[in-house]
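Incident review: delayed structure delivery

Summary: a single-chain prediction request sat in the queue longer than the usual turnaround. Root cause was a stuck worker, restarted by the on-call engineer. No data loss occurred. The affected request and its eventual output are reproduced below so the record is complete for anyone auditing the incident later.

Affected input:
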Amino acid sequence: MTKVYLVNIYFISKKQIFSYTSCMKTDFIDQIEPTPKLHSKKCKMIAFGIRVFLQYSLYVLLPLLWYEYDYFVAIASTLLGFIVIGIVRSKLRNSVIPPSQREYQYSDQGIADWYTARELCF
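Output delivered after worker restart:
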């Protein structure tokens, strides 16, 4: 839905009146569906597992790699991990959220809820 507002601005100087007309356009995104609510414990646990994976998997991986290999490998793997987790997050988000709502920002919990409700728990 697009709303258009007409704005008239008048400037008064000593001898003349200047008029400036502007068209201000604001776009609103209609929200079609709210974030789904999960009702069963199984679905809530799956969504919680996806959320924990998206949020904390890198923080668990870093000390393990540091202990097993070297700090250089751990830092390089962490940087690569940020990219991979970002790609996984965006693929999950774009596969289940309706196209008209993709401009909204969703947290990891919202993405996990959408994915679990749409793909795993019908």
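Verification: The longest strand covers residues 2-12.
Action items: add queue-age alerting; document worker restart procedure.
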